[in-house]
Amino acid sequence: MQIRQILASGTALMALLAGNTAMGQDLSYNLYGVPGLIDTPNARMAPDAEIAATIGGFVLQQRGSFTFQLLPNLSGTFRYAGIDQEDGPGTDGTFDRSFDLRYRLIQETDLLPDVAIGLQDFLGTGDLSAEYIVATKTITDRIDVTAGLGWGRLGSRDGISNPLGALDSYFDTRPVRDKSEYEEGGTVTGDFFRGDMGVFGGITYRYSDKLTLKAEYSSDGYVSETDNGTLDNRSPINVGLNYTYKPGLDLQLAYLYGSELAAGATLTLNPRVRQSPGGRETAPPPVRVRPADLAAAASWGTDEKTLIQTLKDAGITLNGYDVTADTVARVRYTNTTFRSEAQAMGRVARILSAQLPAAVETFVLEPQQRGIPLQATTIQRRDLETQENRARGAEALAQSSITRDAGPSTGLSYTPDLEPAFTWGIGPYAKLIVFNGDAPVQIDGGIELKARYTFAPNIIAKGVVRQSLRDLPLADETETENDLQNVRTDGRYYGQDGNPVIQTLTLAHYGRPGADLYSRVTAGYIEDMHGGISSELLWKPVDSRLAVGAEVNYTAQRDYDQLFTFQDYDVVTGHVSGYYSFDNGFHAQVDVGRYLAGDWGATFGLDREFDNGWRVGAYFTLTDVPFDEFGEGSFDKGIRITVPNDFFIGNATQDKVNTNLQSLQRDGGARLNVDGRLYDIVRDGHTAGRFGDTFGRFWR
Fold first, then answer.
1. Which of 274, 297, 412, 402 is nearest to 355 (CA)?
2. At which of 391, 417, 443 does a domain end?
């Protein structure tokens, strides 16, 4: 490395340590989809829970990245990169999947800079792998300076001897990766912080609230790209700009390595910040405060129809009730509108205060879903009357109320169901298919018919018939060397003949076989590729963070026309599952058992859920299928996102969109997709679950 470059880097590092108090930090994303300069990272962290989607790159290398700020000091990135002409001009390119982790070691103060450590492409083929330690400091309210040390790709230009070699000679050299050994990807690349070390850094200047100018010295030599002639690497200096088109949408433009024009766009969103003004749903009725001189209790039966209709108008179905000694009202109901069971309970309680005789002092409220009671919350009517308009009234009510497991239905008078048993609808559908083989993004769309018949609240038949309008074949099959049944990789053949298909057609029964126990049995065409029977039992006390479940399935693989016949493959699968809710919205799940292809193993998942219904998580599955036999990706893994519709539209609804960003779907570790698994249904109504987490919405 040139002496002048070392001196320049040292001067920049001194400026970092001597800078002024942070005023306006640069939090823009680079072309790799992480907070950074242009093609190199900085040490900034996005606000907690921020989600960023970035598309960027230059002519012969394009990158799509998804970054999530898991914790205030920890972020993760999934990247899908297209590397054209990988082995030189005139040859085919490749699509590479990789994962990053970044952790902030020091947060900026008057004297100290932000300092972060990162692993880039630590889980993949290693084509983009690098490690770094980087510091960023605000010098003025418009200027940030960054300096960092990098290994791997970030140590491939003008590298110097690795100082970690003084600790162990292991760090002196970075082995040349045998690409044939890692071509399947998906495993930890290893070799962290080994080999030559490079110095990178740069400066950002915030010209205005919308425009930021950037310049950097990159220590990425783009060695393979230079060697095969796909990049003319003339200079380590990159310059660019970041333009904030509007809050949440940034555009990047840069000139790289003296030869390449690059561009990018980043869309950011924070689940904690509502996109649509809240409170657009119908306002709840006020609590009716009783007079001091209580009149004798009147008969409730004469007002039953009024109560049923009032609850229905509020989006709630009254299932049954009982009045004990004219002072205790027990009400079982189904919330069909509100995402939060606590908010629905608040509506029910206020309606009861207006409808029930003044002598009724105690409300026992029992929410149920799919015909199974989730819990029973006892609330004193006087607490409703005194806490409704007080500060921290929801917290006080939560402390004075008692929530237990719901009792049996004995004693309840069931009310007539005003909803029709049979419902149906027809309309368009759209399905986003991402990272499917060599196709980054595909869209399937068409017309679908949905129908549902409710035999009883806990016995439900439903189905979906679709007619796709897509004339777009899925990705070609990736060859594998294993003997697994093609339980997922044959997915491209399903529904490709242009005729209508039966997406699902099932009959499900839900039950309460005992205290703290919940059951489900589903039979029929359970998903688009498999049909049969699925049974499940869940143990989940109302106030417990822990839940344990077991599931057993017998299924056969459906024919490609997705109608009524099956192929000659059936299998018994099943899992024992453990669930645990941590603080700060984190939920862990472990499933151990047998998968659709007959392999045995375990799936590990960790999700972070927010009170507004957003959920972001990751999972991976390890089975007895060796990595080299699994095929591309080595093992099953992915990122899953749940987005509640009311976050954007503002109106109360239980609708949501589930998206699975799967690096690659293979046959190993494949599990049956069953609608209505018990844990999420049950946890909605538990104090150690979403009911308790969202009790602040009781008065909304």
1. 297
2. 417
Residue 654's φ and ψ, nearest 5 degrees, are: -95, 0
- pTM for this structure? 0.86
Domain residue limits at 221 = 3-269
Q: Is residue 401's pLDDT more than 90? A: yes
Backbone angles phi, psi at 565, to 5 degrees: -100, 165
Q: Are residues 657 and 588 in the same domain?
A: yes
What backbone phi and psi angles, to 5 degrees, belong to 689?
A: -175, -160
Give a three-class secondary structure readout of 244-309: EEECCEEEEEEEECCCEEEEEEEEEECCCCCCCCCCCCCCCCCCCCCCCCCCCCCCCHHHHHHHHH
Q: Is 543 left (phi over 0), alpha (psi -120 to 50) or beta?
A: alpha
Same domain, 237 and 324: no
Task: Find the helix or strand (DSSP H, E) in which 320 lies.
Answer: strand 316-324
Q: For 212-253, what is each residue's pLDDT tens digit?
A: 999 999 999 999 888 888 788 999 999 999 999 999 999 999
Supply 160's token pair.
């110097």
Centre a 10 Å sphere on the Cβ of residue 336 and count the other Cβ atoms it contains: 15
One domain, residues 413 and 429: no
Q: Are residues 516 and 371 located together in one domain of the fold?
A: no
Residues 391 and 431 in one domain: no
- Predicted confidence (pLDDT) per residue in 522-577, tens digit: 999 999 999 999 999 999 999 999 999 999 999 999 999 999 999 999 999 999 99
Q: Does residue 577 fall inside a structural domain?
A: yes
pLDDT of 475 higher than 70: no
- Tell me: pLDDT of 470 over 80: no
